[in-house]
Amino acid sequence: MRRDSSETRRKILTVCVRLFLEQGYRNTSVSQIVDGAGVARGSYLNLFPTKDKILLELVETMFSGQFGVARSIADDRLPPVYTYAVETAIQLTLTELNENLREIYIEAYSLPDTAEYIYLNTTAELKRIFGAYFPGYTDSDFYEMEIGTAGLMRGYMARKCDIHFPLERKLNRFLTAAMRVYRVPEEEQTKVLAYVQALDIRGIAAEVMQKLFAMLEMKYDFKLPVDGEREETR
Questions:
Q1: Ranges under pLDDT 50 in the chain
Q2: pLDDT, position 227
Q3: Element at 148 (helix H, strand E)
Q4: What's the angle, vertex CA 18, arms to CA 44 and CA 205, rounded to 5?
Q5: What does the alpha-carbon distance between residue 157 and residue 105 come to, in Å, rounded to a whole number?
Q6: Residue 130 near residue 123, CB atoms below 8 Å
Q7: Tell me: the pLDDT tens digits for 133-175?
Q8: Using an 8 Å Cβ cutoff, are 208 and 94 in contact?
Q9: Which among 47, 120, 168 is positioned nearest to 15, based on CA atoms?
Q10: For helices 186-198 and 81-97, angle between their N-to-C axes, nearest 10 degrees
Q11: Residue 43 CA, distance from chain mean position
C-alpha cells in the first residue's frame, strides 16, 4: 500500500509540474491531472486535497537554491546586499520571460502555505544579509519585514513590463523600496542599483530558467516541448 501510494504521488507530481509549466497553474484542472497521471480522483484527493499542496512541492524546489545562484553571480568581495539585489532581480526578470512562471510565482506569493514557506525560507537569508543594519533584531523581526517586502515583490511581478514601465525601471523601483526597508545607506543603494543595471540580467535569468526547467524535468521525469511554453516573451 505504501509503495502504491508513493508511485501514485510521483505520477501526480510529474503531470502537475509539467502542466503548470506548459499551460499555467490556473488552467490546469483536476480532470487533466488525474487523466494524465492515470489515477483515480479519490486517490488524488487523498494525497493532495487542493492544487495548493502540489504547488508547495514545486515552490520548495524552485526556491531552495535561489540565493546560492545569486551568490555565484555576485562578486563575493561585495557586501551581502548585492546578493539580495541579484536574487530578487532574477526573480522579477524570470516573470517577464515566461508567463507561466509569472503565474506560478504570483500564486506562490499569494497562497497561505506557499507564502509561509517563502517567508520562512527567506528569513534566515535576510538576517544574514541585513543583520548588521539591525543589531539585536531576531528571526521574528526579519520574518515580519519579509512579509512586507514579499508583498512588494508580488506587486511588481503582477505588473507586466511595457514601453512605459520597462524592466530596468521595475528593478530599480523594487530594489530602492526594499533596500530602504532594510536600512541600506543611500550611497550603497546607488552602487547596488548601478551594479544590477550593468548586468545582462535578461541573459542571466534566461540561463537560470533553462537550468530550472532541466532540473525539474530530471527530478519529476518528464520532457517539456521545445517550442511550446518555453519560448521567452521579451
A1: 1-2, 228-234
A2: 53
A3: helix 139-158
A4: 135
A5: 8
A6: no
A7: 999 999 999 999 999 999 999 999 999 999 999 999 999 999 9
A8: yes
A9: 47
A10: 40
A11: 29
pLDDT at 18: 95
Q: Enter the pTM of the model.
A: 0.92
40, 46 contact by CB (below 8 A):
no
- Chain-centroid distance, C-alpha 169: 20
Compute the residue count for the chain: 234
What DSSP assignment string belongs to 154-184? HHHHHS--BTTB-HHHHHHHHHHHHHHHTT-
Q: Which residues contact 2 (CB under 8 A, 6 or more apart)?
A: none
Q: Rounded to the nearest 5°, which phi and psi values hold at 165?
A: -140, 75
Q: Quote the CA–CA distance of 102 and 166 in Å, as a whole number.
A: 16
Nearest to 157 by CA among 196, 102, 112: 102
Specify the DSSP class assigned to residue 135.
T
Burial (CB count <10 Å: 0-12, 13-18, 19+), residue 91: buried
